[in-house]
């Protein structure tokens, strides 16, 4: 009787050991499945954010183009410093020469007086100002005479009658909206006088525009 009990216990130990090995294999497989699932979910989340960003850029750009068709100019950007609840939040500024009260900006030649070497040009009152790399003819005599200013701020979604969501990308960051200043003023609007550079990632960068540095406006996301 004792011999049978010993054999039975040995069998139980062998069976228990085999079960633990099986469990270990199952746990390894489960871990692999979980990791693969998390990777797929992460890819899905990234894709959804990219889709949301693309939709916001597309719809806000279309609204800006429609605004130009109605008012004969592009909207001025909204200030980057305005927060929710602020009267200026989502409202365009005044892109007329003296409208934005830009410190250090010479109105006559539309050129920031300082900080041209900074990555985004001159910053004042919730806007970035940068001189275009392109010279344009502003008096009609056939000779380029001015480097137009480019003004960068936020999407003026209220003036565009857009939901607030479309002023943000898929990561919930504000979209940037840059416009050639002259094109945001009805009296100086001329689509031949765009001053925005849009280039690729080559070294050196190559222009993506037919006429280099001639972009009228651009809506962009800074990503993650």
Describe this structure in words.
- With about 220 residues, this protein is of the alpha+beta class.
- It has one domain (about 1-224).
- Helices cover about 30% and strands about 10% of the residues.
- The chain has one helix at about 1-70, and strands at about 105, 110, 120-125, 125-130, 150-155, 175-180, 215-220.
- The protein has a five-stranded antiparallel β-sheet, with helices on one face. The protein has a two-stranded antiparallel sheet with strand order 1-2.
- The chain is elongated, with a radius of gyration of 30 Å.
- The chain starts with a helix and ends with a strand.
- Residues about 100-120 have low confidence and may be disordered.
Describe the secondary-structure layout.
Blueprint: H1 2-71, E1 105-106, E2 111-112, E3 122-124, E4 127-131, E5 149-154, E6 176-180, E7 217-220
Strand order of the largest sheet: 3-4-5-6-7
Low-confidence stretches: 101-120
**DSSP strand (E) fraction?**
5-15%
Overall mean pLDDT stands at 80
Question: Based on helices, strands and strand pairing, what is the structural class?
Answer: alpha+beta
- SS field, number of helical segments: 1
Largest beta-sheet details = 5 strands, antiparallel
Distance between the termini: 73 Å
N-to-C order of helices and strands: HEEEEEEE
């Amino acid at each position: 009787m004792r011999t049978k009990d010993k054999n039975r216990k040995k069998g139980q130990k062998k069976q228990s050991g085999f079960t633990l090995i099986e469990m270990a294999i199952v746990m390894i497989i489960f871990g692999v499945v979980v990791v693969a699932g998390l990777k797929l979910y992460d890819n899905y989340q990234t894709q959804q954010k990219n889709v949301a960003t693309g939709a916001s850029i597309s719809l806000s750009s279309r609204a800006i183009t429609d605004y130009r068709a109605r008012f004969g100019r592009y909207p001025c950007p909204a200030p980057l410093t305005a927060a929710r609840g602020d009267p200026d939040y989502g409202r365009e500024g005044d892109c007329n020469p003296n409208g934005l009260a830009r410190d250090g900006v010479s109105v006559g030649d539309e050129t920031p007086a300082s900080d041209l070497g900074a990555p985004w040009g001159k910053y004042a009152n919730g806007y970035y100002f940068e001189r275009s790399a392109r010279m344009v003819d502003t008096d009609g005599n056939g000779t380029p005479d001015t480097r137009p200013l480019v003004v960068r701020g936020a999407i003026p979604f209220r003036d565009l009658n857009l939901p607030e969501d479309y002023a943000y990308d898929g990561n919930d960051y504000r979209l940037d909206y840059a416009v050639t200043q002259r094109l945001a003023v009805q009296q100086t609007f001329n689509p031949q006088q765009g001053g925005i550079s849009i280039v690729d990632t080559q070294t050196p960068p190559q222009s993506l525009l037919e006429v280099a540095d001639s972009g009228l406006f651009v809506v962009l996301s800074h990503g993650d």
